[in-house]
Amino acid sequence: MNIGIDISQVIYEGTGVGRFTKGLIETILQYDTTNKWTFFFSSFRGKINEELLNKIKGSSHRYIHLPFPPAFLSFIWNTLHIISIETFTGPLDVFICSDWTEPPSKCKKATIVHDFAYLRYPETVHKLILETQKKRMNWVKKESSFIITPSKATQKDVSHFFSIPLDKITPLYSGVEIEKPSKEFLSKVANKYNLTKPFILSVGKIEPRKNISRLIDAFVKLDNNNWDLVIVGPEGWDNKSGQKKHESVKFTGYVSETELHALYELSQFFVYPSLWEGFGYPVIEAMMHERAVAASNNSSLAELVENNGILFNPLSIEEISSALTKLMTDENTRSIFAHKGFEYAQQFTWKRYYDGLMSILCR
Predict the structure, then answer these.
(1) Do residue 321 and residue 340 come from a single domain?
(2) pLDDT > 90? residue 89
(3) Are 267 and 201 in contact (CB under 8 A)?
């Protein structure tokens, strides 16, 4: 089978979609020796990680780079909906679209829909993102042969917002991988970020949807100078809303994968107060590092954390504070949820995702 896939989102390192795309590329390269893949990448200025690009070019598969900016392709494909993907890739049996554009095609299309935060909380995303995703999803409804979501919650959202039968949408949990850092590297990271006290870790792009502002308010409300709150992630749209200053709150900005995994290991537990998530990579990563998790009681987060951690209303500073207090003061509860989460997280393998994806594409 000749399969095309848009990997343009891989350049957004540090985001869930970027990390998903990178993981999927590496999985295809590792496991698929039967099908022929065409990796389609479009960007005017952005570049793929050189190591990953060399892996693609060194494989038996094809790589095509189209030097057009995302806004231009969104206009051509989401608005005008002209020029088929085969114009650039040649004939395909199936094409997997990116999270940004939905091009016309002569073959079957598979669309991976990551989340609907832009519809649930439109005020938390940039207007350009909102309009682009709405236009894109209208074409998904009309043309996609397969719709794949990263959770049952997102499957229900697709059906709810676009009146698509549930049986036409397949939930498929993403693969998640971690790496265990050495003791020497842990010490190096602790020194770099001045981590001298027990700390709570949170990970995510600094933008309104991640609800960092309420998390900080909830933490500061506890008035506990014996703990720090460490927030990891690149700046996003309207990032000032989350950049509240406090001596016990540390912003690291974007960190490398190796440093991120060290921070999971160094933390006491993990908190994820996002307003809405299609999946929630950091939650599963924290579980794999055997860290207890407290997260929002909505979207995919409730699905992932139910029975495996503490859930709270992300709109309630009181509930967030209560969850933090429980895990800060009760070591036994931290231990129980760390163990339960670790056991639960073992199912999130990339081999399982790849097998599920191929079974869908071969229908």
Answers:
(1) yes
(2) yes
(3) yes
